[in-house]
Amino acid sequence: xxxxxxxxxxxxxxxxxxxxxxxxxxxxxxxxxxxxxxxxxxxxxxxxxxxxxxxxxxxxxxxxxxxxxxxxxxxxxxxxxxxxxxxxxxxxxxxxxxxxxxxxxxxxxxxxxxxxxxxxxxxxxxxxxxxxxxxxxxxxxxxxxxxxxxxxxxxxxxxxxxxxxxxxxxxxxxxxxxxxxxxxxxxxxxxxxxxxxxxxxxxxxxxxxxxxxxxxxxxxxxxxxxxxxxxxxxxxxxxxxxxxxxxxxxxxxxxxxxxxxxxxxxxxxxxxxxxxxxxxxxxxxxxxxxxxxxxxxxxxxxxxxxxxxxxxxxxxxxxxxxxxxxxxxxxxxxxxxxxxxxxxxxxxxxxxxxxxxxxxxxxxx
Length: 365
Prior knowledge:
The chain is α+β, with helices and mostly antiparallel strands. It has helices at 4-22, 29-54, 61-81, 85-109, 119-144, 157-166, 169-194, 204-221, 236-242, 244-261, 285-303, 327-343, 354-364, and strands spanning 225-233, 267-272, 275-281, 313-320, 349-351. The protein has two domains: 4-193, no CATH class; 204-364, 2-Layer Sandwich (Alpha-Beta Plaits), CATH 3.30.70.270. Its EC number is 2.7.7.65. This is diguanylate cyclase.
């Protein structure tokens, strides 16, 4: 996942920087001041790059490296040439607040890409806000307090409190980024489970989950819901004469044509082999027959343009959901209609009336 390595590197650099801070009183000034602050700045810079990569933005790695170099030089300037703890603290605060603002801006720029749950993005935004506010509050305290410490290494209750809080700042940023990575991985796994890898149609599993959800909604709202079951005619000769690769390309060509002909709210699923199902919310039986006719005509037009679909026709069975039906009942009803279409000579659309077939279907299921 893009950005993961940078987030892990940020955590490792943060550990190194915190160790330098912790043993600062026992280390040479160059390590306790310049190196410690430079490593910590590099850690937050790596987190910024990780977030940029995670959301597909330009990482700006060169700009981050230059900013870290100038920041470290500034720390050295306010240490050796102009010894000012307040100036060093202000420089740290401005750098860290700027990085947090950059991460927050990256998230907000990508808000159209956000997917539920939103708590991971809100968590990162909250951490960015708290870090920036904490650094700025520390600078304000150093500037206003009469007994403010003159060095980061000087024992002081408030300094210890601020530094202890800042120890959780970078881990919070990294943890938020890894939460986003985890959600991306889960979403990819769900997508892989719900999609047919060949045709990009929904899988059989996803079809039944969607069917149950749409049937519950249809029962609640009283709106119609229809189902088409589609099977290729003369598909086996494609595999036998042109090979299975040609058969796969024919399935992909059909799915592409079907998806372009159907609405975004319709659910096209590959049920297995060369059999597809289409769930059509807000569609009654008459409208479903018209959609089936249009789809059949689209494929017949395609067969004159695509060698892989040449000679393929469709048999389609259409059914409609009624109150208290299950997905299996509606699918079985469509399957009976599809069987009738095959038995009648193929290359046709058949609908079995619900009232005529309901009792027998319930016994079959």
